[in-house]
Amino acid sequence: MIDASPIGNNVRSTVATYSGVFDHLRRLYGRLSDQYSAGDFSYNTGKLRCPVCEGTGTISMDIQFLPDIEMTCEHCDGTRYSNDVDSIMYHGYSIKDVMSLTILEALDVFKDIKKIKEKLQVLVDLGIGYLTLGEATPALSGGEAQRLKLASEIGKVQDGSIFIFDEPSIGLHPLDVETLIHVFDTLINQKATIIVIEHDLDVIRNSDYIIDMGPDGGHLGGEIIATGTVEEIKQNKNSKIGKYL
Fold it and tell me: What was the pLDDT predicted at 150?
């Protein structure tokens, strides 16, 4: 079930960690250093995390009678790392610098590292290349969260899998809807079955088979009033959506 619910409520969860890119980044920087291993580059438990905020990038201020206030850590300026990471660079970027790059920018930097490039390319293909790698996943919009969840499924053989999407086009620009349909096609080519609950005409007209519910909304709906391909729905007089298609 690929829904638009938020991804976790932990500020330690970022686009890089959730997508799996961060593991490959840590291994790369671990190989570049004689002093530190891959584990040291983790901002959760590693030696190189900021000692003040302990890798969260924020400090919680306890105020009596009011909710706690989260403030950017002044020691690391919200980067989560100590200054020691600045001595280990890849093409002029420390791992701290990389986390502030957008996915699209990082793709250009790591174009020669196959495993990192492949994961970043999937995120770009899903239309979220503008997100930074260090962006906390709880702060993502519903559509962004939905596409990030999909990233781990792209590239796998999906024979026997059913994906259910609930209104995936809500809030999307028409060009983003086009990207979404391309993602659907990719999953179908990997032998997946996709069920979409949707009102967007572009998504509906790209469907192989339509189940038109109605005749109206809310308590006036709930009946199947037409079924079939796009052409069959167009010709079905019972279908309200047919004339719009």
Answer: 87
Low-confidence ranges of the chain (pLDDT < 50): none
Alpha carbon distance 26, 39 (integer Å): 7
DSSP three-state, residue 30: helix
Mark out the alpha helices in 68-171 (DSSP H runs). 95-98, 103-109, 114-125, 142-151
Which residues 6+ apart lie within 8 Å of 164 measured at CB? 1, 2, 195, 196, 197
> Distance between CA 45 and CA 42 in Å, rounded?
6
Fold of domain 8-140: ABC transporter ATPase like fold (1.20.1580)
The torsion angle over the Cα atoms of residues 197, 203, 204 and 210, rounded to 10 degrees, is -50
pLDDT in tens, 18-44: 999 999 999 999 999 999 999 999 998
Q: Which residues pair with 162 in a beta bridge?
A: 193
Q: What is the pLDDT of residues 46-57, one digit of tens each?
A: 999 999 999 999
Q: Where in the chain are the domains?
A: 8-140
* Structural tokens at position 184: 């659907």
* 185 three-state secondary structure: helix
SS3 225: strand
pTM recorded for the entire structure: 0.78
Residue 7 to residue 1: CA distance in whole angstroms: 13
> What is the rounded distance in angstroms from the CA atom of residue 132 to the CA atom of residue 13?
13
How far CA 76 is from CA of 60, 72, 83, in Å, comes to 15, 9, 8
